[in-house]
Design goal:
By secondary structure, the chain is α+β, with helices and mostly antiparallel strands. The chain has one domain (28-116): Endonuclease, Chain A. 43% of the residues lie in helices and 21% in strands. A four-stranded mixed sheet has the order 1-2-3-4, sandwiched between helices. A hairpin with a 4-residue loop joins β2 (53-59) and β3. The relative contact order is 0.16.
């Protein structure tokens, strides 16, 4: 028996789709690492609806959300913490990186993601 995902609210679907076409440089760089199962065969989706939020990058298999925090996240620590708490209650772990992390040290970002997925010690 196949599992059908619950239907998405059309507004949430549109909210998730728009940023897929307007990616920043750091988002493109991180997507280059994650797309097409390039990172140890893990399947990531970008701008993926999870609960009431749209995750930057999500690996459903590992229940891992990779959040990329750019300039718009400065001073939003409390709301980020609330989002992380809600996502945790939905069974997801969240790992956050800054734009600078991705640009300056993509290898370290990849290692951290692999470690979070239990693929690296």
């Amino acid at each position: 028996m196949s599992h059908k995902p619950s239907p998405l609210n059309p507004r949430m679907r549109d909210t998730a789709r728009k940023p897929r076409h307007d990616m920043t440089g750091p988002e493109r760089a991180l997507w280059h690492l994650l797309r097409a199962r390039r990172l140890d065969g893990l399947k990531f989706r970008r701008q993926h609806p999870v609960g009431p939020f749209v995750a930057d990058f999500c690996c459903e298999e590992m229940k891992l959300i990779v959040a990329l925090d750019g300039r718009t996240h400065i001073g939003t620590g409390e709301s980020d913490d609330q989002r992380t708490d809600i996502l945790g209650k939905l069974g997801y772990r969240v790992v956050r990186f800054t734009n600078d992390d991705v640009i300056e040290s993509p290898e370290a970002v990849a290692r951290t993601i692999l470690r979070e997925c239990g693929r690296l010690k």
